[in-house]
Design goal:
Elements: H1 3-13, E1 16-27, E2 34-45, E3 49-53, H2 60-67, E4 75-80, E5 89-90, H3 96-103, E6 106-109, H4 123-133, H5 142-152, H6 169-182, E7 187-191, H7 199-215, E8 219-223, H8 227-233, E9 236-241, E10 244-250, H9 251-256, H10 261-267, E11 270-271, E12 280-281, E13 319-322, E14 325-327
Parallel strand pairs: 3-8, 3-9, 6-7, 7-8
Antiparallel strand pairs: 1-2, 1-4, 4-5, 9-10, 10-14, 11-12, 13-14
Bound molecules: adenosine-5'-diphosphate and magnesium ion.
Length: 334
């Protein structure tokens, strides 16, 4: 019996909020669609913070948009089992109208909160609109609820009467978070929520997300370029490359003992010196191949320092090499 089979009962004991199976999103038709997400499988456990990392263009945002049904999948399943539910619902196969009641349960926070806030709406109305969409906190309950939401994200009651441009970037991201919280979600996708913020503000927003997650019993998918923040905030991490999963592991295991050559390259990456542009550049040769025409076999092989002939034809599958630590390279001798 192999390790994966032996570990199965232990893994099953933890409740999965989402089980993503062979999720696929192709953009465009014809013989060479853009394979933004190509047969991606992973789970998100109830109450965890799962990191999703990978270079720009690897499909992170598309996965976030699929999970919140801002885009429709080309294939695969997204099995959603909220606490207390007896059977999962497949979010991938719900129509937009069937998904509507779930829309409040799965929320997304974007990189640029300013772009997603109507500049002509006072914050009171931004939050009020979110509450109205789901019929929450009507009448006399409205103002106290708005004040409560503002307090939860570290803002004051008088901020309710201001317009988006009257806030700093960090405050606007707090408003974006308050709007997501307004509808009482169970699951939040945070898509690079720090990228538009000054470094000095980033830690505050990270800590706020961590605190809210604990207090409100949320499950978080945290999408980021910033491997330091991911290490700090996340329980487990999924490493994505060209629309495919390269590695999945508990955070400490991934950082202490990365298995996949791509993860190793990411972790060895050089930070950009300008703190305002805090990103990491992988120490990899060349550009990401086109997702419309990915390499055969292992999609990473064209940039892999350890690639061999057989990588071109290998059907790469994730293998469990330590409890909960999976990777998609056939080598074990790295
Ligand atoms: P990431 O968030 O990791 O940078 P994305 O999910 O935004 O990656 O993009 C993955 C790939 O899908 C990229 O090649 C991107 O150009 C492509 N893509 C994303 N959205 C669309 C779209 N609406 N139409 C066509 N291609 C898209
Ligand atoms: Mg993105």
């Amino acid at each position: 019996m192999n390790a994966a089979v032996m570990e199965a009962p232990q893994v099953a004991a933890e409740q999965n909020l989402l089980e993503i199976r062979k999720l696929r999103k192709y953009f465009g038709k014809g013989t060479h669609p853009v394979r933004a997400v190509d047969d991606v499988s992973f789970t998100i456990r109830q109450g965890e913070t799962l990191g999703l990392v990978g270079e720009s263009g690897s499909g992170k945002s598309t996965i976030g948009r699929l999970l919140t049904r801002l885009v429709d999948p080309t294939g695969g399943e997204m099995l959603y089992t909220p606490q207390g539910a007896s059977a999962p619902q497949d979010l991938a196969h719900l129509s937009q109208s069937q998904f509507r009641p779930l829309r409040s349960k799965v929320q997304i926070i974007f990189q640029d909160p300013y772009a997603s806030l109507n500049p002509r709406m006072r914050i009171r109305d931004v939050l009020g609109e979110a509450l109205d969409t789901h019929g929450l906190a009507k009448g006399a309950a409205r103002t106290p609820r708005i004040h409560e939401l503002l307090a939860q994200v570290g803002l004051r009651p008088e901020h309710a009467d201001r317009f988006p441009h009257e806030f700093s970037g960090g405050q606007r991201q707090r408003i974006g978070i308050a709007r997501a919280l307004a509808v009482e979600p169970q699951f939040i996708v945070a898509d690079e929520p720090l990228s538009a913020l000054d470094v000095s503000i980033q830690a505050q927003v990270v800590n706020l997300l961590g605190e809210l997650k604990e207090k409100l019993n949320l499950t978080l998918l945290f999408i980021s370029h910033d491997l330091d923040v991911v290490e700090y905030l996340c329980d487990r991490v999924v490493v994505l490359y060209l629309g495919r999963v390269m590695e999945i592991a508990p955070t400490h295991s991934l950082y202490a003992d990365p298995k996949h050559p791509y993860t190793r390259a990411l972790l060895a990456a050089a930070p950009i010196p300008d703190p305002a542009q805090r990103r990491v550049v992988p120490l990899l040769q060349g550009d990401l191949p086109s997702p419309a025409n990915p390499p055969s076999g292992c999609v990473f092989r064209t940039r892999c320092p350890r690639a061999e002939e057989r990588c071109a034809s290998a059907d790469m599958q994730l293998r469990e090499v330590k409890p909960g630590h999976w990777h998609a390279c056939w080598r074990d001798d790295l």
